[in-house]
Fold this protein.
Amino acid sequence: MTGERVTVTAYTDGPLLVRGDADILDADGHRVPRTRRTVALCRCGLSTIKPYCDGTHKAAGFRTDE
Ligand code: FES
């Protein structure tokens, strides 16, 4: 990491967007490969490419609000 600021943005009814040079680790602490500076992390639990979002949340009708 270069020390640059990393931001995580929660999108309504969608994923968490991570912008910046953050390491993404799995439950065992192993680094998950990433190929882009901005990645979307699934928070609906339905993605087939976890921890990343594959867009399934839209078809599933995932909602983050009451
Ligand atoms: S948030 Fe997009 S597939 Fe889960």
Q: What stands out?
A: The beta strands are 7-10, 16-19, 38-41. Residues 14-15, 42-44, 46-47, 53-57 surround FE2/S2 (inorganic) cluster (CB under 6 Å).
